[in-house]
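ugh finaly. both done.
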Amino acid sequence: METLDRRRMLQESFWGSLMPVSTYCGLLSISSPLPSHAYTPDPDPLKESLYLICRVQEATCLQERYINKKLPPIKKMKLTLRLVDRSYRLLDQINYISKFMDPTSVVEAVQAGNEAADSLQEAIDFVYTYKDNDGAAMTLEQKDILIASLTNTREKLFDFVAYLPDQGKLQEARKRVEEENRLNIDEYDPDLANDAGIYNPIELPWKNRK
């Protein structure tokens, strides 16, 4: 498998490869190149959009992990939120997926999706009010506000996709996320990282959800 140099991997993660946010964050602490699976969009556009929705939900959990650190890594939070915003294009996915909703419920579905997008934008705007190395300035109250926006993003997306009449493609999209994450863990070499524990994947938000 072809090995990409670190700079090229980071560039592609922003401008076209749609590298999962969790993988990108692991690369930030790796000093040597790692093998990387080329990003291949799903030939089914609906499953591709659902996959990107799943990645947004995953990213909100990752942001919450950062926020709960004693000193939230503001610079890393900005980078990953920019990746989510530019690469996953949440509103585009909501608009496309809504075409497959039942006409009798599409208004409610789109409202939930738009509320998710609004909450995500609120979180992005909030983080960008801080300087890159200003994590110590974030109070507990401010952390709670930011977590609330991220949680609302995630939960409203659950509400949105629940309106799909056929949940089969959603389940396939989630399985794709799980499989890609598993492959990334298998490829990860802690000997190449400054912190051997840096690649510690979050629990995906739909796992064990009642």
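ok and the 2nd:
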Amino acid sequence: MDAVRVSALRERLAGTGWLEAVGGFAGSLRRSVERRGAGELLLVGTEAYEPWHLAAHLEDEAAWSAVPRLAPTLLRHRPPATAPTHLAHDLRRLTEAGRGATVLVVAPAAVGAPLLERVQDARRHGATVLALDGAGPVAPSTDGDLAGPTDPADLAGLADLAGLAHERLTVGTAAEEPFDLAQHLVSAAAGQPVGRRSALGRLAELAGRLASAPSLSRW
């Protein structure tokens, strides 16, 4: 999504409560990684969706904001044997996560049982669980479509994830463009000190940042 379209969305989203919801969720993410005793940020998607761009944006925000723990460890369901070290982490890291760790689950659609079980393990061991998912008609998409997932399996998987998450942000659609926008907004807002700027201000800054792509070389 380019900067011009993000700027246009700023006006459309004003007054909907969506930007405030993003700001609250991003603030929780930042507080979780900055709190005393905080450990690593574990970022995981579904078997069908790996949040590469969010990983890259969070790494950039970690550098820009001087909050190194915003840089995530990306967990993968089936990393190939030839994957570089930083892309070879699998779901077993969730089972090992304990108090101080933050788990951010990004799920546009159904979350499978193996991932849910490991997220439950992480929460049981004291990790903070945050979820960004596609359920529920919450945020307007760029074409005005508010439809979220309708498949019963998708809805059941997302409902189970909601029960595990300490905090959850629902996008309202699994469509690529609005779901990608939500991740841009969360990463940009997480890079700002909590309470420092308004949600509209963060979106204005995001529009400028999107003029240049994130550093994807590691991902």
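summary for the 2nd one i guess: Residues 137-155 have pLDDT under 50 and may be disordered.
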